[in-house]
């Protein structure tokens, strides 16, 4: 299937027009016209080889939403014309305990990423969503509620489920106090979900100018992290804190904010290992945990929840020729709160 997209050919090269062939449909495959593709900060890290050696040429993009245009002979989950979403991975072993539990992101053999990965045959490069078409095994795609604005749905496929998963796993809801560290592409989804789940929600940010946005998204409280006295007042206050910040920082003040049996979940990937005071954990039986995206069942559950509560990401829609500028603006935190590419412009 002839496909137009944008690719990067080396870590120091800009993204540029790229034509390639998608595979012919297998019996369980679904083909889609992509409507929108989100720009995730991890796209930038991988395109620039900031997370280690990458596979080039690379077509980034793992926040994909579109419409089904063709289905394989054994497809039962989708029909032509239906809205469809694709997220961070396109395959897994299907045999391990994690896959069996619907937690394919933790596949023991390793999930197959939507891009910067080799397919299970070990030789075919997986090209991502910065393109006008996509082909996917039906097991790794989800239905999209028709009432949602599609441009705002695209980031839900990564940023959305990355915050929804820990909130559900650690039982955020009525009577719980939840803190969200950072109000960016990830953090703003955490605020929306925590609020919709009924938790009392506090945002921690170094940017006081974001307070109005945080409150509009459902935050009950907004704390400027530069104010150490305000942080001190919050010791032993929270059941759950989600750290969406990828910058290196001191977790000690936030661990001290946890109640007995409280948990701080790391979501943003820091450049260096954290230094942790074990005594802070021991003293109140606190936990430091991590969470990575979500499995297929959870991804569908999240989209259904978004449809019921009319939740989408706050986005700035761009044309494909703006991607390189959008990368620079994302690095500079100059976006509210996620860039999304109009795939008609590839």
UniProtKB/TrEMBL annotation:
InterPro entries from the UniProt entry: ADH-like_C (IPR013149), ADH-like_N (IPR013154), ADH_Zn_CS (IPR002328), CAD-like (IPR047109), D-isomer_DH_CS1 (IPR029752), ER (IPR020843), GroES-like_sf (IPR011032), NAD(P)-bd_dom_sf (IPR036291)
Known EC number: 1.1.1.2
Domain of life: Bacteria
Cofactor (UniProt): Zn(2+)
Molecular-function GO term, any one: zinc ion binding
Pfam families linked: ADH_N (PF08240), ADH_zinc_N (PF00107)
PROSITE patterns referenced in this protein's UniProt entry, alphabetically: ADH_ZINC, D_2_HYDROXYACID_DH_1
SUPFAM superfamilies per record: GroES-like, NAD(P)-binding Rossmann-fold domains
Keywords for the protein's UniProt record, in alphabetical order: Metal-binding, Oxidoreductase, Zinc
Domain Enoyl reductase (ER) span(s) in chain numbering: 13-318
Reactions performed catalytically: a primary alcohol + NADP(+) = an aldehyde + NADPH + H(+)
Family: Belongs to the zinc-containing alcohol dehydrogenase family.
Name of this protein: alcohol dehydrogenase (NADP(+))
Species of provenance: Candidatus Nanopelagicus abundans
């Amino acid at each position: 299937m002839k496909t137009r997209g944008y690719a990067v050919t080396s870590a120091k090269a800009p993204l540029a027009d790229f034509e390639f062939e998608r595979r012919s449909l297998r019996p369980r495959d679904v083909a889609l016209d992509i409507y929108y593709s989100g720009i995730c900060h991890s796209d930038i890290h991988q395109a620039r080889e900031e997370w280690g050696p990458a596979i080039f040429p690379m077509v980034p993009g793992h926040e994909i939403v579109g419409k089904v245009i063709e289905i394989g002979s054994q497809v039962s989950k989708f029909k032509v014309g239906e809205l469809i979403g694709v997220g961070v991975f396109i395959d897994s072993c299907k045999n391990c305990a994690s896959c069996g539990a619907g937690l394919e992101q933790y596949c023991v053999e390793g999930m197959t990423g939507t891009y910067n990965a080799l397919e299970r045959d070990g030789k075919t490069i997986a090209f991502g969503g910065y393109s006008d078409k996509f082909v996917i095994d039906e097991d790794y795609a989800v239905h999209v509620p028709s009432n949602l604005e599609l441009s705002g749905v695209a980031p839900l496929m990564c940023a959305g489920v990355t915050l929804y998963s820990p909130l559900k796993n650690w039982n955020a809801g009525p009577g719980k106090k939840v803190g969200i560290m950072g109000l960016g592409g990830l953090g703003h989804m955490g605020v929306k979900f925590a609020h919709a789940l009924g938790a009392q929600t506090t945002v921690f940010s170094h940017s006081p100018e974001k307070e109005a946005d945080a409150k509009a998204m459902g935050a009950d409280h907004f704390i400027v992290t530069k104010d150490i006295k305000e942080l001190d007042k919050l010791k032993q206050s929270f059941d759950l804190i989600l750290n969406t910040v990828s910058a290196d920082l001191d977790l000690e003040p936030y661990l001290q904010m946890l109640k007995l049996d409280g948990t701080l979940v790391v979501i943003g990937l820091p450049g260096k290992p954290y230094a942790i005071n074990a005594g802070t954990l021991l003293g109140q039986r606190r936990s430091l945990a991590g969470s990575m995206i979500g499995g297929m069942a959870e991804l569908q559950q999240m989209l259904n929840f978004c449809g019921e509560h009319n939740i989408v990401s706050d986005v700035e829609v761009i044309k494909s020729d703006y991607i390189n500028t959008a990368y620079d603006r994302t690095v500079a935190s100059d976006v509210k709160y996620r860039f999304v590419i109009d795939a008609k412009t590839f």
